[in-house]
Structures are given as structure tokens and as C-alpha cells.
Amino acid sequence: MISLLDYGAGNVRSLRNAIHALGFELTEIKRPEDILKAERLIFPGVGAFGAAMERLHRLGYVEPLKAYLAAGRPYLGICIGLQALFEGSDESPGVAGLGVIPGRIRRFDAPGLSVPHMGWNDVRVERDSPLFAGYAGEKLYFVHSYHAEPHAENADWRLATTDYGTPFLSAVQRGRVGAVQFHPEKSGAAGLRLLRHFLAGEEGGVPAAGRSACTEPTRFAKRVIACLDVRSNDAGDLVVTKGDQYDVRESGAVRNLGKPVELAERYYEEGADEITFLNITGFRDFPLADQPMLEVLKRTSERVFVPLTIGGGIRAFTDDSGRAYSALDVADEYFRSGADKISIGSDAVAAVEAYLARGGVKDGSTAIEQIAAVYGNQAVVISIDPRRVYVDSPEATRHAVVETATPGPNGERYGWFQCTVKGGREGRDVDVVELARACEALGAGEILLNSIDRDGTGAGFDLELIGQVRAAVSIPVIASSGAGCVEHFAEVFAATGVEAALAAGIFHRREVPIQAVKSYLREQGIEIRS
Ligand code: 1PR
Fold it and tell me: What is the mean pLDDT of the chain?
């Protein structure tokens, strides 16, 4: 029997799903005394270090956990479940960790490095371990802003290291106590294999192949994301649709490109690094009333073991009976249904307008701040729907302009990118640069950058737009809208340095398979996850 130490600080549904999919039963730790009764214990920490330790203390779990670890009993820590083993973290100064492993947790901090470290990276397995039995050098999924430093004092714990600006401990193990910084439950088949070794209590096993004993630097991959725009069609069925410049109707009817769960599963099998669902009418319908959408998410998360993002309708809402819901309530339900990240569109624009009107002062009132405080910055994606506005000169507007290689209808040589809300229906007096910067300051962890002008055109990503936003923030940016062929992916990575590229239409219509994109990127020398 496997015991899960879910102390209620975040979303562990993905891990539960992975464990069930592997055919294992789980029991929950409900009281301090359950910890010492556990046969195998998993600690899937999420969120901030200080919040995790504070909850462990409040629940009376710290002492039994220390006793369990001191006895060398089977333990698998994941993410914060690794970091908590150390003495403390710069994330939460003054808060003591479990102190099992010597050393402190530090923030990633190197010029030009996007933080969080979010995506697929290699691990250098430095010695044989049953956890990595059969491991053949596949990339694994990481998402964290803080890391454990390898030191002489913790050398006996060192199992694997990864480079992200600096080398850090991506796996530790001593005896039967082990922990990993990456998320095995979100790392596809390679992660599930590792998880199975722990769950099955396999103590022997073959040594890791591939990168074992390897000393070369690990390589962080660019991500290729499949996006499913979802809404009800006129018959009331939830379908994957796809617009041309956000118009999803053809001859009056909503385009139907397939069933959401089936398509998501197909993209997982075909090697998508992440799947994003956008509930595109969420701005007008209350998402919590949209049970089919929540069901789609639940069923997908039982079968798809890469990160899932969902957006659409995340905002405060009062229903017909007068009951008020906060944006955090809406996000909670998405996380409970299997999302790893949520994406906020229209409400982020409103939040930024209010934040700028306050003179750039944070007051904790925005959905971005509230959701990030509970689930961590990495779980909050901002989806931007910009439209190009041409001007004759930079002086003609107060907004951040680009000099454009594609002049406007009257030969204008400059343009700025106006944020819109409600699926592009309404433009606001906010540009992408001020929106992206303000969202980063409010605590967002990633930007999903669409383009209404390029969406569905197959004309390629808008490099001017994407380059402008990439240069403005240090959180990861996902380029979206306009992918028409494999070359467009290589182009956007080379020209802008974004961390990920997303496409919809070419994948749905089977014009370009995900593996064709990846093969081409590999040929171009761009690091990807195979
Ligand atoms: O504003 O928080 O309720 O969120 C609504 C979400 O729905 C936003 O993320 C917004 O981008 C999205 N959305 C709203 N209306 C539409 C529409 O198409 N009518 N979809 C829409 C936006 C954009 C992409 C698309 C790429 C790639 N879709 O995500 O998948 O452009 O397409 P391509 O590769 O075929 O060019 P809120």
C-alpha cells in the first residue's frame, strides 16, 4: 500500500491519476500517526517552501516525518518533497526544512535565464539506482524557481544532476529515501516508469543506461504545445474548434474538428510536450456551470501524462442564485479536475488596468496574485489576445511600438499590439508590453502569446510581436498563432528565443504531425524532447 502525504497545499490530482493508471492503490495520510504506519510514502510537494513547511507543522507531521526518514524507510519526495529534505530555502528565509540533507535551496539567478525552469531537461544519473532502472536518457518535466545545490557535504545523497544556468540536484537518494526535483507524473512514459519502480518497491533492477556516468551539460528543450480551442457547437456538443483570426464559424456553423479528450490523447501519444485547452466561450458562460468541460479535463488527466493547461472564464462571478465565486474558486475547480496550470485572458487585462490605475501597487486583490499565492507562480499562465495597430511614427502613440517589416494598409512603418478581451471582441488601451510586465510583477509564471492577426492563417508566427514580449519579461513565453509548416517553429525559436511554440489548426487537420515538427527542429540543431 502506498501512502500519499497530501497536506492540502495544492494540486496532486495528476499524481493520483498516474498512480492509479499504473495499477496501484493509494491511501491518504490523515493523521500524524499514519506516517509511521506507512509502508511506502510519497510526498508530492507543491507551492512555496514556507507554506509547505508551515502546513506540515500545523498538522503535526514534522516529527513523525523526521522519524520515518531517520529510519530510512521508503520515501519518494517530488519537487518541494525534495526541497523540504534540506535545511532551508531562500524562498522562505527563517523557515527550517526537515534538515535531513545538508544544504540550502537557492533561487535560479543567472543573466538571461527564464525563471521558473519550466519544461523538459535531461538528468545526469551519476550512480546506479533502482529508481532509474531502464532509464535511457529521456528528458523529464521540471517546473520550479528554486533548486538544491550540489555540495561536498551532500555528496552521499547525490543521485542525478541537471544544468539550468547552474548545476543542481535533480535527484537525491540514500538507501530507500529518494526524491526528485522533476515531476515523474508529468514526464510521459519515462516518468511513469520511474514512478512504477518506487511504487513496486523494486530494490534491484538494471542500472540506468543512456546518460549514466555522463559528464556533458544537460540540454533544456524547447516545447511544442498542442492547443485545443473548445466550445459547444449549435447542437450543444462540446467540440474542438478552430477559427480564422478568431472567427470559428464557417457557413454560419461552429467548425467541428474533433472530440476534446480523443484529440488530447492523440497529441499525447504523438509526443506533444504539453496540451492546452481554451474554453473559448468561458468569458460569457460561467465555467463552473460547464460540467462537460470539467469532465473533459478529468478524463484527459486520467490518460495524458504531460502538463495540462486550461483557460477560459477564470474571473470572479455571481451566479443566478446570487452566490458569489472568486476567481480562485473557479481556478480551484479547474485544478481539482486535473489542470496543472490555468490560463487567464480577459480578467488579466482588467487586473492590469486596475494595477496600473493604482500606480503599479500590488494589493493582493487580483486573480493572478490570489491563484499564484496558493498554487505557485508556475501554475498561472496569462493568455494574451493582441491585435496589431499601425501608426506612422513612434510619437503617434504612448504605447510600445515595433518598426515593422510589413507596413500597414497606408504604408505605416510602425505598429503596437493592443490587448483585447472577450475573445478579441473588445480592444483595450493596454499594450502587450505593459500587460506582460504587469502580469509578471503580479506573479504570473508564463505568457501564452496569441495573435489575432495571425491566428489560423498559417502565415507563420508574428516574430515582431513575439520578439517584443520575449524581451520585456523574464518568465517563459509561448509563441502562438499562425504556424503553417515545420519551418515556422524553427524560425520563431531562432528569431525570438521563446521557450515554447504552440499550434492548433495544422495539428487538428493532420497537415503537419507533431513528430515532423520535432524531427525538423532536431535537424536544425534545436534541442527538443524526442
Ligand atoms: O478571456 O480568460 O475567458 O479566456 C478565453 C480564452 O479563449 C483566451 O485564452 C483566448 O485566447 C481564447 N479564445 C477566445 N476566443 C477565441 C477564438 O478563437 N474565437 N481562441 C479564442 C484563441 C488562440 C490560440 C490558437 C492559436 C493557434 N485561440 O490558442 O489555438 O492561435 O492557432 P493556429 O495554430 O491554428 O494559428 P478568458
Answer: 94
Neighbours of 87 (CB within 10 A): 14
Predicted local distance difference test score (pLDDT) of residue 305:
97
Rounded Cα–Cα distance for residues 89 and 144 (Å): 13
Per-residue pLDDT tens digits for 57-102: 999 999 999 999 999 999 999 999 999 999 999 999 999 999 999 9
Helices (H) and strands (E) in the chain, counts: 16, 30
Q: How far apart are CA 253 and CA 233, in angstroms?
A: 8
ipTM of the prediction: 0.99
Which residue out of 278, 293, 380, 478 has the highest number of ligand 1 atoms within 8 Å of its CB and is therefore the one to mutate?
278
Q: Which residues contact 424 (CB under 8 A, 6 or more apart)?
A: 245, 246, 385, 387, 452
Question: Does the active-site annotation cover 183?
Answer: yes
397-400 contacts: CB < 8 A, separation 24 or more? 399/431, 399/433, 399/434, 400/431, 400/432, 400/433, 400/434, 400/468, 400/472
Q: How far apart are the first and last CA of the chain?
A: 34
Which range has the worst mean pLDDT, 12-21, 198-207, 255-264, 273-282? 198-207
Nearest one of 417, 441, 415 to 427, comparing CA atoms: 417
Task: Summarize pLDDT for 106-164 with one digit per residue, the tens.
Answer: 999 988 899 999 999 999 999 888 899 889 899 999 999 999 999 999 999 999 999 99
Atom 4 of ligand 1 has which residue's CA nearest to it?
312
Q: What is the DSSP letter of 408?
A: -
For residue 81, give the nearest of 223, 192, 185, 190 by alpha carbon: 185
Distance in angstroms (rounded) separating the CA atoms of residues 368 and 475: 14
Looking at residue 370, its amino acid is Q
Output the ligand 1 site: residues, CB below 6 A.
Answer: 227, 229, 242-243, 246, 248, 278, 280, 282-283, 311-314, 343-347, 383, 385, 423, 450, 455-456, 480-483, 503-505
DSSP readout, 473-497? -SS-EEEES---SHHHHHHHHHHH-
Based on the number of CB atoms within 10 Å of its own CB, is 66 exposed (0-12), middle (13-18) or buried (19 or more)? middle
Q: Pairing relation of β-strands 88-89 and 104-107?
A: parallel
Active-site residue (options: 144, 147, 183, 399): 183
The answer to whether the beta carbons of residues 239 and 78 sit under 8 Å apart is no
Is residue 376 left, alpha or beta, with left meaning phi > 0 and alpha meaning psi from -120 to 50? left
Q: Which residues contact 12 (CB under 8 A, 6 or more apart)?
A: 4, 6, 44, 46
Length of the chain: 530
Which domains, and CATH codes, for the chain?
Answer: 2-199 (3.40.50.880), 223-523 (3.20.20.70)
Q: Is 185 a catalytic residue?
A: yes
